[in-house]
Amino acid sequence: MRYLLMFVVMMLMQSSFNVCDAKKKQNVVVDTLQMLSSKGDSCVEAFDYFHASLYYKQAYDFKQSVAVTRKLANAYRKMGRNKDCAALLETVPSDSLTYTDFRSLYFAYHNLDNKLKFLFYGNRATAVNPYDNEIVVSMATYYNDSNSPQMAADICKQYLTGDSTNMLVLRQYGYACYLTGKYKEAFDIYKKLEGNGFDNYESTFVMGISLEMIEQYDSAYNYMLRAATHKNFKDYISLHHLGTLCLQLGMNDEASCYLTLAINSLIPDSTLLATLHKEKAEAYFNKQNYAEAAREFEQSAKLSPDNAITYYNIAQMYAAIGDRKKEKANYTLFLQKADTLKDTEENKEMIKKVKELLRK
Fold first, then answer.
1. What pLDDT score does 9 carry?
2. Percent residues over pLDDT 70 in the chain
């Protein structure tokens, strides 16, 4: 009996030691997680998301929890690691997702251009909080840019019933009104925006078009003139509208002037086109397709006829395909334009070689 009692006492002592050991291990885990999480939090407070992510990742690897998952995901989002952020938050049970999680998932998927996902989480977020102006503006901008202005109008209108002072939301609502043909309302909204310092091409153009559509041509002309000024009179669409407004107002000389500017704005940049044809020619040359390269260089020469090197290149291409006549003709054109070249030893040598070739 005495031995049995001793055995029981020993078992109880062993059990007590095991419980203490387990508690110690548990305390170590808790202390480690708290330490790593605290260090990560300090980094976040200093806007150091890189080092915050390292501490949170250590904590996550040590023992996964929703709290640590959320912190690591938000650090990743701040670093632009949207895919990693979304992947982490998608592991959180849906009934455990917070409003902050909805926002993180929305912006992560928006940056990943995952339309279905970011609209899904955007709708969940605005259903909980219709006054999150960042998400409202972001979603409205997407709808306006995606030819769904009525959707933009609806989400903005819901917001504005509770707060009519947010200029960013008001702007998207005004633009949605403009796109849906509510020109009087669009003008009134942009007029309010103008009073709050919103004065740029978009605002003056929208107000000009809105007034033009409701046949207030005098006022429309003034706003469209301001819009064209914002673009230094190089924007076709505002110049075109200016011209047609002048016609409506009987200002025929001004109409002719603005329509001429509109026409000129559509004329392509010959220098840029010449460069593009030259680069295309180089691509053909690299493929040893000298005939196509010659044709592209010739197009470049038409657009930039005073570029001597272009004629030299054309001559080289015809030399490669054995067309001696066109080779000599283009070398001759090269020499005629050679005085435009810089006075360098390389160019002097090139001119000398061409002259020797033509004498043969």
1. 47
2. 91
